[in-house]
Design goal:
The chain is α+β, with helices and mostly antiparallel strands. It contains 12 helices and 12 strands. The chain has helices at about 5-10, 15-25, 30-40, 40-55, 85-90, 120-130, 160-165, 185-195, 200-210, 210-225, 255-265, 290-305, and strands at about 60, 70-80, 95-105, 110-115, 135-150, 230-235, 245-250, 270-275, 280-285, 310-320, 325, 330-335. It has an 8-stranded antiparallel barrel with strand order 2-4-3-10-7-9-8-5, surrounded by 4 helices. A hairpin with a 4-residue loop joins strand 8 and strand 9 (about 280-285). Helix 9 (about 200-210) packs across helix 10. The longest helix is centred in the C-terminal third of the chain and has 14 residues, at about 290-305. The termini are far apart.
Amino acid sequence: MATDDLRGSGTLSELDLKLIHALQINPRASWAQVGGLLGVDPSTVARRWSRLAERGAAWVSCQPLQDLDPALAVIEVTARPGRALAVAAELAGDAQSMTIDVAAGTRDLLVTAACADEADLASYLLDRVPHVPDVAAVRSHIVVRAYTEASRWRLRSLTREQEQGVAATLPTIGESARVQVAGPLDRALVAALSEDGRRSYGELAGLVGASESTVRRRINALIGSGVLRLRCEVARGLTEWRVSEWFFLRVPSARIDEAGQLLAAVPEVRAVLSAAGPFNLLVAVWLHSVADGQRLETQLTRRLPHVEVVDRSVVIRPYKLVGRLLDPAGFATGVVPLDLASRPAES
């Protein structure tokens, strides 16, 4: 199928959806494992994935290493009239701006930023973002805790048995529970995996300057311990989840954990982040329609009457997703390798 055909069709085949769902559970599962669980030849799923990846319809990337305890913030950016995309393009080149959404509502951009530590985050918030040309205002929300994040979000294409079968292929936590981040090797692996999370061990070994056996052991240990989280993403417009929306909540401090855990269990929810600020719970969702956002809000306030939905923003264009640059249709067009130790560009 040609690129234009895939974009124009607006849908993925059932096998494609099952393949992506399987890789959401174990992004580095072998084609033999995936094919066996889906009941198709390994060469078929390999060919399907190659087609999706080449067209930017689906991809595997990674998040910052959990052991580094990265400092996170959600940044609301207001641009000068007509300059939102120019600001997004400038910030998209920063490794620190993991995700950028162009939004409707009271902010033009929502930027999820990750830095190596609080000092680097403060520098990014004070010295970089406000000084980008055409930025008119900035408001930041320092993330305190993630109750759930998008690497845990799933399509609903596999059966429960198939989900369990894929999960059984993951490296086990028990084998590597005491893994700690070692330094340059792990950073190099993250940078390489952020470009393509399914790179072979041999290719990764050549990129990071280590033996293939060392790379294999290290990646399995990092994944098995939960330190490294790979994630399989898909162009949202090719799924039934056509709308992305952010909700800004105010919750009594004594009820934040309760609300965060309940919201994390809602199928539409991609991320639930507690934050220090006037909005102390930020929620990102994928929905079938804008109207579903209103229905979800009504359901949330009924179920959690102590929660106040202070504001909301519909994403009108995804610009960057965990390092992956996106076109207006949400297809991946490039990548900014993830390296939280790099310094942001000068404005």
